[in-house]
Amino acid sequence: MNNDKNLYCIAATFNTPDEIINAAKKVSGAGYTHFDVNTPYPVHGMDDAMKLKPSKLGFVTLVMGLAGASIALLFMYWSLSIDYPLVIGGKPYFALPAFIPVTFEMTVLLATVSTVVAMIMLFFQLPNNKHPLHDTKYMKSVSHDKYGILIETNDDKFDEKEVENFLKNLKPLNIEYIYYPPEETYSIFQPKFLLLLAGIALVVSGGTYFSLNKLMFMTPFNWMMDQAKLIPQKGSELFEDGFGMRKPVTGTVARGFVPYPYKGQVNPTEVLANPFLPTKENIALGKAKYDIYCSPCHGYFADGDSRLRGQFPNPPTLHSQRARDFSDGMFYHIITNGQNIMPSYESQITRDERWAIVNYIRVLQRAKNASDADLTEMNKEAGSNVAN
Amino acid sequence: MNIDYSQETPLIAGRLDLAQIEELIAQPMDTKPDRKYYIALSISVTALLIGAVSLGLTFYYGIGLWGNNQPVGWAFEIVNFVFWVGIGHAGTLISAILFLLRQKWRTGIARFAEAMTIFAVMCAGIFPAIHTGRPWMDGYLLPYPNQHGLWVNFTSPLLWDVFAVTTYFTVSLVFWYVGLIPDFGSMRDRTTSKIKKTIYSIFSLGWRHSNRHWSHYEKAYMLLAGFATPLVLSVHTIVSFDFAVSIIPGWHTTIFPPYFVAGAIFSGFAMVVTVLIFVRKIFDLQNIITIDHLEKMNKVILSTGMMVGYAYSMEFFIAWYSGVQAESFLFLSRAFGPYAWAYWIMVSCNVLIPQLFWFRKIRRSIPLMLIIVIFVNVGMWFERFVITVTSLNRDFLPSSWAYFTPTMYDIGLLIGSFGFFFTLVILFTKSLPVVSISEVKAVADGAQPTHHGGAYHE
Lengths: 388, 458
Hints:
The structure holds two protein chains of two kinds.
Chain A: E1 7-14, H1 17-29, E2 35-38, H2 46-49, H3 57-83, H4 96-123, H5 137-142, E3 147-152, H6 160-169, E4 174-179, H7 191-214, H8 280-298, H9 321-325, H10 328-337, H11 351-368, H12 372-382
Antiparallel strand pairs in A: 1-3, 1-4, 2-3
Helix pairs in contact in A: 3-4, 8-11, 10-11
Chain B: H1 18-30, H2 35-61, H3 76-87, H4 89-100, H5 107-131, H6 157-190, H7 194-204, H8 211-244, H9 256-282, H10 291-321, H11 325-336, H12 340-352, H13 360-363, H14 366-393, H15 408-431, H16 437-442
């Protein structure tokens, strides 16, 4: 034995498929376990001759296929029924028949791709171009037209002389000793390699930046933004006044418009009467609208405690005697018309909502200015002394 | 020409041994291309460039360059898409369905047909992508978490199409590559060039022809075939849903899925025969891709052609039998309206001409079968044209009826897709084994042990 080389296996080659089947039977029959047969194509009956167990690859396919189906279904359920429910073509949110095609495709995709990846990476332990068999005479003949069998040194029963005699008894074409190739080591920190990595990183990130932030805004990619149409607030040469947007004809009245008779008056001598009763629903609407439109300046409880941190002057509290003495119509007038620095909310809050806000302000005023007599009243209504 | 059909014909003619088979298949890769190769390549690259220019102009000016109008919003580009996806069906059919049916004659043609599948699906994929008008926005077709908080519409046939075609492409590619691994191993061990050896080593992943691997490999091949079979049927089914799920008369038909699948196999086989006739001649593969292979494929063409013919007549029958006025009108207008010329080209190319394959002499005559399969290719393109354009050009409102005429850009893109396909095919024939080396070796005379009778016999 050559001492400076490490033996991997002893291999024998044969000329016909019958011989190799026979050889495989003999080798497996003699109790060797770390042996292999190399043939240019799968030879029928070899698995039995080598006493190989049936491949377990099917389990990978089964598990990943089921995973593909359930991932696809769950994802479609989540995205179309929970995350962004949309009715499309009158179908229910979970439209199972319409989900079948994508579920099927995902099942096939995941099952096949993972079967192949598992086969190559797990079952074959490939890629492996450093295997001792590569570039041997044995490998070249078995990938061409010969049939080979080899017994590895890490077999428990391996004994060099014995194995050689055993293989010779099978009358092979020839016998070959295959050694481990000398170890080759490369450092990944070679400057050339690092430079290549840096180059790739630069090209990929630069390319991404350029295409997303620059290219998409160049001709012709920007042609969707450049359209021959009028957009709001833009000028137009077509009209004499140069405005793109047109004013309605003088005297045009919008649908549902009811003129407010006291428009523009600072201290109106008469105001409208509140047409709404302070029902539960009306006050709930009023609270919702108050919280949106009024509370930023007036505060949630109308204390005049603005949340604007001095960016806009604080309004006075609505619990002052003056404010409590305002009629409902006066509050309505102030919301509609504006007062002092407060702008008009006519265009933002509908008539009914304005009245609802007025009702809600009354609730706040009543709550903030309660007296002891109210407690007695309340206990009487509740039938107990909860308010104590 | 007396053939005994009661017995299997030999899969490989001329009693080649393993070394000769490998020599024969590897020859195109070991030799330098000749003048004929460059002439063929320059023709197909010219066609490809015509397509590239049309595509570039379409990108720049938009799809207004095409002949599409109102109401014909789907025209050449959708026709081409369905045509190419259909062509792509032959490969997986041969490699998966015939594998499961234990048809050993598939080994000689499977690799080539799979490659054609991949190239045809690549051609097909271009068209819906550019039909969106702004192909650089096609990322929106994928369900990815985005700043709009929106998801794609999983209930739309157009989205099913995205999933079906991408899955089909991926699975076909994986299937093809798995088949190629042992051949890369053989190529690695026979080549003398250092560059080639590096390339083959990388792609062979260090394959060692080990039987412990073959055992899993054969299992994996069967699993893949098992999945690819329903997949190939699903793809054209889903493509037909693009039409059938709408409510346009002429499209809204339940016969569409099987009809499309039969048509796809029909056109795919025709294309495979067209290309194989040249490849077996040029690369001297007559012994591996024998006349028997071609005859078997012609039989498939004959039978699927009759299925397609049955579908044509059944469409007419249902249009009358359903009593739906719009439907009957549309079918009459297909056969006798403004596009009658296209309809009768389709019927004669797809139904009448393939009937000649009933005659054995024609089935086994190279020049005649070449003419017939080219007619089938033309006919199947026109079938998609008839389905798409004639259903749209006369919609529910007579005032909006319009005749579709393709522009030079439409035709340029069609020529370009053929250029793309044939360029890839031509490059493939010189760079990869066009026939599976390991599979053909496995079915050669005396390649399997004699005592293992029954599974294979001469």
